[in-house]
Amino acid sequence: MTAAAALAxxxxxxxxxxxxxxxxxxxxxxxxxxxxxxxxxxxxxxxSQVVLRVPLARRILRPAPTVNxxxxxxxxxxxxxxxxxxxxxxxxxLALRLxxxxxxxxxxxxxxxxxxxxxxxxxxxxxxxxxxxxxAVVTATVGWHLLDCGExxxxxxxxxxxxxxxxxxxxxxxxxxxxxGEALAYTPADRTRVVNISALAARLLARAAEFATxxxxxxxxxxxxxxxxxxxxxxxxxxxxADPGGDWEDSFHTGYVLEALLGVRDQGISVPDDALAHGxxxxxxxxxxxxxxxxxxxxxxxxxxxxxxxxxxxxxxxxSSQTISIPAHEHARAMALRIAxxxxxxxxxxxxxxxxxxxxxxxxxxxxxxxWVQAWMALAMAIAAGLETTxxxxxxxxxxxxxx
Length: 404
Hints:
α5 (about 70-80) packs parallel to α16, α8 runs parallel beside α10 and α12 (about 250-265) packs parallel to α14. By secondary structure, this protein is mainly alpha-helical. Helices cover about 60% and strands about 10% of the residues. The two termini are about 35 Å apart. A hairpin with a 2-residue loop joins β7 (about 175-180) and β8 (about 180-185). It has a single domain, classed as Alpha/alpha barrel (Glycosyltransferase).
């Protein structure tokens, strides 16, 4: 199985299902969830965690499949990135349809600001959000892939929606001053200071500032970036949040931060080499020698599809940089392809046509999650396929030079 073939199969399977699927955190979107919802944060959080962690509970409660805006954005990103492998005509047609669905799923905040959220209610450790509550992480992801689509394919509707996402991040969420920077809240109703939220928002705002020639957007991106850089710990890692109880770390959130910092640096915002060098040194702890991606740094931590997908995305972003000279840069492309190879060998389910969720203690959890796994893997496989194609072309060129 090649990355390009996996990309095509995952996209076709998702499209045949009208992009609807289950999510690890959709436990409250059930009959029992509706009964539990009025009882407060602890019962809501408890039920969500049971449905997340216990496959039998999911089979009994049977959450209904939903169409997730973040999944649509990731599938859009996969389509744009993999357009050569998919075929330009089909890729453009698919991109137009995905942009149309994203236009319908957003929540208009004011004349030119649109936010996106999750299609199910959810309870975090810190706050409660009703279904479709617009939030920073979904909006930043949606906006990024819309701007990417607008730039790569010339689809004006995608560009205008991406700028509307940036407007939501600047006006629809509270910001908290932290040191020389500021942290952006997760939803309009909270004041959390989650590191990856501010990083992803900064990345979108920095790019939107270039599209719109907007100095205020750029200044906002710079302040968010200063918060993210200031939150980095002495060992190079980042805590999940600068809030009480937020000092834990995991693989994919760390990947979000590093990818976002690479993105803002590409837009000319100062991100020191040392911060990236130490960050990638800390990030490497999540990966096994064969490319296996672990959720946490412990050797007993589960091998995780979402972490693998983000690892491919993050290392590929580092490998494509032309301005960074840090130890991890030299082997970044090879690392991205190593993780992709591991994912195809260890997580791909050929009889089912999708990627598994996790591997824990040698046992594979084959549950199919549309946003959490398939959409992320579609994007990662599109990126890996592009790397494979480039390496093959370089190999052919080198062979021709040798023969000459």
